[in-house]
Batch of 4 targets.
Target 1
Amino acid sequence: MRAYELMVIFNPTVDERTVAPSMEKLLTLVTQNGGTVENVDVWGKRRLAYEIQKQSEGIYVLVHMNTTPDVALEINRQLTLNESVMRTKLLRNEA
């Protein structure tokens, strides 16, 4: 198991109340494969540094999890296929 940090930026047209449940549903993949989700922090709507897909705002979500590399890459893949997700960034924590 490795520690990962996942940042997701959702389209601002998405209802903020649906973001956390949809992330929890996606992160069940981690717990099913023996990993743990340490924290899911929904930052809410923030202004972007530059426009992405002609949007100047996005809904930020930060996730800390311990899982295998295969599961982390699969979650990232599923998020990139989701049309309401504008950007993802998956980082492996060294500590």
Target 2
Amino acid sequence: MRTQTGQPLARDAMAYVLAGGRGSRLKELTDNRAKPAVYFGGMSRIVDFALSNAINSGIRRIGVATQYKAHSLIRHMNRAWNFMRPERNESFDILPASQRISEMLWYEGTADAVYQNIDIIEAHAPRYMVILAGDHIYKMDYELMLQQHVNSGADVTVGCLVVPREEASGFGVMHVDARDRITAFIEKPADPPGIPGDPDNALASMGIYVFDTSFLFEQLRRDAADPGSGRDFGGDLIPYIVKHGKAQAHRFTASCIRAAEEIEEYWRDVGTLDAYFEANLDLTDTVPKLDMYDREWPIWTDSRVAAPAKFVHDEEGRRGHAISSLISQDCIVSGAYARRSLLFTGVKMGSWSCADEAVILPYCNIGRHARLSRVIIDSGVRIPEGLVVGEDPILDGQRFRRTETGVCLITKAMIERLEL
């Protein structure tokens, strides 16, 4: 479907990314950064996926609402996403909670994060609004969701996933009729409703919503005037529209982008350390579940000028090499070994060290003879020579943040405590 001017619907849309979340379940990994700013996949940040989907879908007007510890997120977006040009009717607005409505108020909820910037959105005059969560890993063509929204005549279209019922209680869950019209929307229900004809599964919200802009503004103003509202899309706006208007479900399978070898519709909420670890390691598979090499649907990010990765030393027992691993630019693997690991930009591995199933964030330095297994190492950490992690669960739990599956998060503060 195209607009009256013959352009795709995405050209009349604005993407609005909600990127203010703290991500407390990622523990110390979000002590100094918002969840959308957390590194992912060797060179990217989590927020890059929603932003890349918007650009690849043809949307050229984007707003990003930030709040919690937003400095690194804003710095990243200024570096990576500054190529939009107003003369081409493009825009990229970073919208921190700036107390513009009231000097006492930060963003009170996801809906309020849009409401407080209505005047900025109006200046761009988009016909449609695509509201996105900024903290999920997936590839999706929002143009197809826009087309369904217009064709169905819905007041709101909600992106959704099919998930097992027993796993759905952590999501907003919708009950739908045979035509996928939403008849009930329940935020994090204890007993999620099943899908008609498929009772073992439920439809879970992806935190993606499409509105006609004028209708969205009406609902935001109505909600802002309600003293009992939590100012939240999933908790307040969507249930109200389900009850008083027309809400339509859009299934991820209808717009998921898959490269030729991708075998599943890949979507991950990397909101826990275990989920974050596993999603990163997914990329090391010979045929990864998520193809980051897909030139037809690239994941845009900050392109730094840096030296290529380097592997040095070729002696028995001291040979720089990596197997089933992603090694980013400016890395040096010096007589060390990495297996099924991700080395982000600027990681240095000293001689006789090894990393086995490791997610090592930028500019870490791994000391000689260190042995690291099933670890996430925060950026800038210097691992002492000879440190062993992943072989003694009790000792690991005393020194680091260890999950029930044995994944250890290592931060600068934890290393400093070891050295006291």
Target 3
Amino acid sequence: MKKALITGITGQDGSYLAELLLAKGYEVHGIIRRGSTFNTRRIDHIYHDPHNNGETVHLHLHYGDISVGETITDVIYNVRPDEIYNLAAQSHVRVSFDMPEYTGDTTGLGTIRLLESIRKSKIETRFYQASSSEMFGGAKPPQGLSTPFEPRSPYAAAKVYAYWVTRNYREGYQMFASNGILFNHESPRRGETFVTRKITRALAQIVAKKQQYLYLGNLDARRDWGYAPEYVEAMWKMLQLEQPGDFVIGTGEAHTVREFLTEAFGYLNLDWEAYVRIDPRYFRPTEVDYLLADAAESSQQLGWEPKVRFHELVRIMVDADLELAGLPCPGEGRSILQEKFGGWHRWESQVVSMER
């Protein structure tokens, strides 16, 4: 049985990746921060209490923090995983302007702490670094492996640092260390302050008459949006190759926030302009206008292509948030998942309902 260690296991990507690896027969270990409250709702459906006799436990959680190198080294040395997926970070771009030092510490230095822990532990493992399309920033689209980075936020700059130290350790210490430059990927498990989930959740609250307006910033920002469960499969595929490398993952099509609003509200026959208000506080000091993946080379290497497209993604998210609010939904999102996925993938309301 292979062992995998996931930092950021309680996040959107971490929870999907844990599901995928468990379905593939892995023993999965996750690092969570110790706190006075539990923040494990995205993985509660796959976690089994080890105190329950008779249950075989393949998901194990360890306390640790990527801002503290000693705790990371202890976990890596004791678990000795075959694969390590670094998904932990302060990942909200707008928040990184308000908390630049913390963002740099977790998103940037956290990566080198992990790489140093691997080196010092002298274990044979494969390392995945979650890089971001935000690293391209102001670069002209489409952006691919040959596109120079032009970061436009503390978050993006920290990710560029993490990208290069991953390459340095791969080349300097012959580590199997790969960067996955993932363009925006969304789902019903997306954090509620990220714009896509903010829209679909607010839409459900408006329909339920619990919210009157939705406040947003730049509606002209254009992004390459994909479906998160497919992107974690690409992460896994990167670590199954014979050689490590750097990869770009995206759909190859981009849409504005305004288009997302039109698609989401139009799905319920509503005019978004009646409900949306612009709040200058949500604009970034330096904006990123247009991110579009040039992923052809990476897709060919990995044998990976996205199944869920933009309008389908929106329907999946709207349906899930309507159900979360206790409202009837058109059901197209559920039908899309049933048609395109099987095996480990499940209808999202079974998970996001835990947020109530």
Target 4
Amino acid sequence: MDSGAIAQFLPLILIFAIMYFLLIRPQQKKVKEHQKMVDQLRVRDQVVTQGGLIGKVSKVKEDGEIEVEIADGVKVRVIKATIAQVLSKTDPVS
């Protein structure tokens, strides 16, 4: 390969490198943080779902679901991955 061919591919390589550091890498980090947050959910944590519901976790199931109490006696099943934010965290059981 001569230097002319390398010079033609250099801009494409630079664009890919910039895209990786500005878009792909931060998104992967955000996904890892969300997964860690979801894995650490405990009973009595106050959470917000992606649909905007606020409630307290009443049961954590192993099949990717949690049970969230959104009002007194009103419980809904929610997929863990749809939890957008944990508002208040309970202390782990020692």
